[in-house]
TrEMBL record:
This is Uncharacterized protein. The lineage of its organism: Eukaryota, Fungi, Dikarya, Basidiomycota, Agaricomycotina. It comes from the Eukaryota. It holds the Pfam family Retrotran_gag_2.
């Protein structure tokens, strides 16, 4: 792959706090093109022998980890630095950080989804992408054991807490 086409392959936005859904697919596609995804996803196990195959696997692991690290904003890099030699753990840690299963993350994901409006100069394609990202966040914020009743109770409880915190206390004067 030429230098320019390799740079084009990695021209997507670095992972920050709010763009995991799109970054995940872009990074996965880049790793697939470079034939590093199977290793990163854990589907290609490290061979025990011969030494040449072990060395090749380790080189691919370093390349995958380096590519992932380069496509992270500084704040995200700090969170995975201890996995610089292990793209499997690095990918898993990033995924785990984004798929938090708690009432606060669910409430925020749903609140963000229902707050989406079309910007004046925004194309329908861009709007659709933002909606898809928000849906992805909503799906990742809940597990299969969460019932509709549990979810409704969480929304009422969390919604009441956030409403109370937004109200200003009455002044005494």
């Amino acid at each position: 792959m030429s230098e320019s086409s390799s740079a084009d392959l990695l021209s997507f936005t670095k992972l920050g706090e709010s763009n995991y859904p799109t970054w995940e697919y872009d990074m996965r596609a880049a790793l697939q093109v470079k034939k590093l995804w199977r290793l990163t996803s854990g589907n290609e196990s490290k061979p025990s022998s011969p030494p040449e195959k072990v060395e090749l696997w380790e080189e691919k692991a370093e390349q995958a980890a380096g590519l992932i690290y380069q496509k992270l904003e500084h704040g995200m890099q700090i969170l995975v630095q201890k996995y610089m030699d292990d793209p499997i753990k690095m990918w898993g840690e990033l995924e785990k950080m984004q798929h938090q299963d708690n009432p606060a993350s669910r409430f925020i994901a749903y609140d963000q989804f229902f707050s989406i409006t079309k910007k004046e100069d925004e194309s329908l394609t861009a709007l659709t992408a933002r909606v898809e990202d928000a849906l992805h966040k909503m799906r990742n914020s809940r597990n299969s054991a969460l019932t509709l009743k549990d979810f409704e109770d969480e929304l009422v409880r969390f919604g009441s807490l956030t409403t109370c915190s937004r109200q200003r206390p009455e002044s005494n004067g």
